[in-house]
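Subject: complex prediction, re-run

Hi both,

The earlier run crashed halfway through, so I resubmitted it with identical inputs.
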Amino acid sequence: MKNSHPKYERTLVLIKPDGIQRSLIGEVIGRYERVGLKLVGIKMIVPTRELIEKHYTLDPEWRVKTGVKTIKGYTDKGLTPPETDPLKITEKILRNLVNYMTKGPVVAMVWQGAHSVEIVRKLTGGTEPLASAQPGTIRGDFTIDSYRMSDQDGRAVRNIVHASGSVKEAADEIAHWFKKEELFNYRLAVDQMLYDVDLDGILE
Ligand code: ADP
Ligand code: MG
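This time it finished cleanly. Structure:
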C-alpha cells in the first residue's frame, strides 16, 4: 500500500486449528470487526508443513526472541525452564508448532485500519493464556493453556489465534499467505466516523 496514513496499516491473523474446533471463527472476527478494523482478505486453508515453518522463520530473530520469552515465562513464576539455551527451546517449539498448525483448517485473514498491528495484538492478548493473556482478550477469555503444560506434554501452546508482532512482520506474513489479487481496497461506512476530518452529512 503506497499511502502512509495509519488507516492503511495491515496485519495478518490466523485462526489456528483449535480456534476453528472451538467454533470461535465468528467470535474472533467479531472482536476485530467491532473496534472498526476492516477485513480486506480471508480464506480457509489446511497449511502445508513448509508454509508453517516458513511463516514462523520469516523473522530471523524469531527463534531467539521466542526462546528468551519462554525462559522468562518460567522464571517469572519461579519455575526452572526445561532448557537454558533459547535456540534449543525454539527448535522444539517450531517442531510442535508445525504439527499443531497442519492438523486441520485454519482461517487466514488480513485486517486493515489505524495501528492495526498493535490494536490486533492488544485484542488478541499475550502468548501464554495462563499468564500473559489478560481477561478480555481472545487468548485470555477462551482458553487455559500454559508453557508448563504444553512443554510437559510435548506440544505447542494452543492459543486460538496468531497475530503479526510488528509492522515489518505483518508485511512479510501477508505476502507469505496472500496474493495481491486476494486483498481488497474498499471504503466501509464506519470509515467516515473513524477517519474523516469533517463529520458532514449527519444532520438532515
Ligand atoms: P505469538 O504467537 O504471541 O507471537 P511467538 O511468536 O513467540 O508468540 O510464538 C509463536 C507460537 O508458538 C505461539 O503463539 C504458541 O502457539 C507457540 N509457542 C510459543 N512459545 C511456546 C512454548 N514455550 N511452548 C509451546 N508453544 C509455544
Ligand atoms: Mg509471534
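The chain has a mean pLDDT of 95.

- K.
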